[in-house]
Amino acid sequence: MIYLEPRVLGWRPLVESWVNGEIAEPLRMYKNEILALFDFLVPQCLGMFSFTRKKNSIDKFEILNRSCSTRNKRS
């Protein structure tokens, strides 16, 4: 097993893991659309968080992780 830090991997593997494994059953049919939305929105949002990162103590990967886990709890 090889460990890589989230900063090295990027955000995409985290989202793909969530979509392929933990996403709610009714949403599975929209997997490609959900990935397309993440592809469109996440880079823009992470760019904004990088711009304001000095003001925020939270890591951008933690924000994405929390977003995915919040979606699971609502389902």
Question: How would you describe this structure to a colleague?
Answer:
Helix content is 68%, strand content 0%. With 75 residues, the chain is an all-alpha fold. The termini are far apart. The mean pLDDT is 75.
Summary keywords:
75 residues; globular; mainly alpha; 4 helices; single chain
Q: Which structural class best describes the helix and strand composition? A: mainly alpha
The amount of beta strand, in percent, is under 5%
Proportion of helical residues:
55-70%
From the spread of the alpha carbons, the general shape counts as: globular
Q: Over the alpha carbons, how many angstroms does the gyration radius reach?
A: 13 Å
Give the termini separation: 32 Å
What's the mean pLDDT score?
Answer: 75
Provide a count of the helices: 4
